[in-house]
Design brief:
It is a single chain. The protein has seven helices and 19 strands. The chain has 330 residues and is α+β, with helices and mostly antiparallel strands. Helix 4 packs across helix 7. It starts with a strand and ends with a strand. The strands form three sheets. Strands 3, 4, 5, 6, 7, 8, 9, 10, 11, 12, 14, 17 and 19 form a 13-stranded mixed β-sheet that branches. The protein has a four-stranded antiparallel β-sheet with strand order 16-15-13-18, with no helix packed on it. It folds into two domains: 246 residues, 3-Layer(aba) Sandwich (Aminopeptidase), CATH 3.40.630; 69 residues, OB fold (Dihydrolipoamide Acetyltransferase, E2P) (Beta Barrel).
Length: 330
C-alpha cells in the first residue's frame, strides 16, 4: 500500500496519521473542521472508509471506531488502510441532535455535497472529496432507536454491497428497494447510495439507539467492521458469522400507523417475526383506560422497530416492518 494523503496529511506504510478537513467558520469566527484519521497498514490491500455520527446524536459508531483504532488494528499486520471520520456532522454532534442545527438539514440526504452550499452540504463535500474519494469501500455507521433490531442496510441489486452486508455478520440484513417514496425522500443523497452509484460498495449498519453508548450494539458494530476487514483480506482470519441471516426487503420506511391517539402497550419489538393479523399493540385512552385500538400486522414479515415513545397521536408510527425474502445459512 502506497502512502495515502487526505486533506494534505500523509500516512506512509505502517503509519497512523491525524488531521482535520476545513469546512468554514461559524458566526463567532470559530473554525469549522472535521477530524479524521488514516491507518495505513504495512501490507497491500484495499482502502476502507468508516464514519460515524452523520446524524450527530447517533454515537454508538463513535465508540466502535475508538475501539477499532486503539485496541484492534495492528498496522504491522494490516493489509490496506482505513480512512476514518469518527464524527462526520460535528455541528449536530456538539448540539446533541440528529440534524444540522444551522440549516435544519439531514446531512444524510445531501451527499456528495456542494462546495458553495449550505452547512450540511459543505461538510459532506469536504468529506467526500478529500476522505472518501481515495477509498474503495464505505461503511457508514448509524443508529435508530433502542427497539431497533441490529441490522445492515444495502441497496437491493448491488451484489458487492450485499456481500459486505453479509460479511458484516449480524443476523438481519435489509435490502432497500427503490420506489416512488425512495425518490421523494431524497435517498439518492444518502452516503451509502451515492457511494454505490460511484462504484464504491457501501453498507449502513444500524446499531441501536441514539444519545447513549450501548455495549452490546457497540460490540456488534466492532465485530462487524473487523469481519469486513477479514472478508477483504485486510486482517487475518475469517469473518465470524451467525448460523443464519435473514434478508428483509423494505421500501421507504414501511410503517404501520396508529389511527387513534393514546398510550400503546406493545406485544412485539424489533426482530420479532409476525404473521398477518398478529397483534402489534393495544392503544388505550388516558381518559378512561378503555382500549381504543388493537393494531395488527398488515402482513407476514419482521418487525424492524417499534415507536420508542409509546405515547402516540393519530398517524404516528406504531412499527416499521419488512417482508422476509431470503434466509442465508452458514
Amino acid at each position: 500500500m502506497a502512502a495515502i494523503t487526505v486533506g494534505g496529511v500523509t500516512a506512509d506504510k505502517g503509519q497512523l496519521a491525524r488531521g482535520t478537513l476545513p469546512v468554514g467558520t461559524l458566526a463567532d469566527g470559530t473554525t469549522l473542521e472535521v477530524p479524521f484519521l488514516i491507518l495505513n497498514g504495512k501490507g497491500e490491500g484495499p482502502t476502507v472508509y468508516v464514519e460515524a455520527a452523520c446524524h450527530g446524536s447517533e454515537i454508538n459508531g463513535l465508540e466502535v471506531i475508538r475501539r477499532l483504532v486503539t485496541e484492534e488494528v495492528d498496522l504491522e499486520v494490516l493489509c490496506g488502510a482505513f480512512v476514518i471520520v469518527p464524527v462526520a456532522n460535528v455541528v449536530a454532534f456538539t448540539h446533541r441532535q440528529g440534524h444540522t442545527p444551522f440549516d435544519n438539514e439531514n446531512m444524510n440526504r445531501v451527499w456528495p455535497g456542494k462546495a458553495d452550499g449550505r452547512m450540511s452540504e459543505r461538510i459532506a463535500h469536504a468529506i467526500w472529496h478529500h476522505a472518501i474519494e481515495p477509498c474503495d469501500y464505505v461503511i457508514d455507521l448509524h443508529t435508530g432507536n433502542s427497539t431497533l433490531v441490529t441490522h445492515v442496510v444495502f441497496m437491493g441489486g448491488e451484489e458487492s454491497s450485499r456481500n459486505l452486508a453479509v460479511n458484516f455478520g449480524v443476523e438481519v440484513l435489509i435490502s432497500e428497494e427503490k420506489d416512488a417514496d425512495w425518490q421523494k425522500a431524497r435517498f439518492s443523497g444518502k452516503l451509502r447510495n451515492f457511494a454505490d452509484a460511484s462504484g464504491k460498495p457501501a453498507i449502513c449498519p444500524e446499531l441501536g439507539g441514539n444519545s447513549k453508548f450501548e455495549p452490546v450494539r457497540i460490540e456488534q458494530g466492532l465485530r462487524g467492521v473487523l469481519n469486513v476487514a477479514k472478508h477483504l483480506g485486510m486482517l487475518p482470519g475469517e469473518p465470524v458469522l451467525p448460523k443464519r441471516q435473514t434478508v428483509v426487503a423494505q421500501g421507504h420506511l414501511t410503517q404501520v400507523k396508529a389511527n387513534h391517539g393514546g398510550a400503546a402497550l406493545y406485544a412485539v419489538t424489533g426482530g420479532d417475526r409476525v404473521s398477518a393479523g398478529d397483534l402489534l399493540c393495544r392503544i388505550y385512552s388516558i381518559r378512561d383506560f378503555s382500549v381504543l385500538e388493537e393494531v395488527r400486522s398488515p402482513g407476514d414479515g419482521m418487525i424492524i422497530m417499534v415507536a420508542e415513545n409509546p405515547i402516540l397521536h393519530s398517524g404516528d408510527m406504531v412499527a416499521m416492518m419488512g417482508k422476509i425474502v431470503d434466509e442465508i445459512e452458514h
